[in-house]
Amino acid sequence: MSSQEITIKGPNGDFMGYMSAPDGGGPGVIVIQEIFGVNDWLRGVCDMLADQGYMALAPDLFWPIEPGVQLDATVESDFNKGLEIYGKFNVDKGVEDIQASINELRGREGCNGKVGTTGFCLGGVLTYLSATRTDADANAGYYGVGIEGLVGEAEKISKPTILHIADEDSFVPKEASDQVRQALQGHEMVTIHTYEGCDHGFARDTDTNHYDKEATELAHGRTFDLFKSALS
Question: 207 pLDDT band (50/70/90 cuts)?
Answer without folding.
Answer: confident
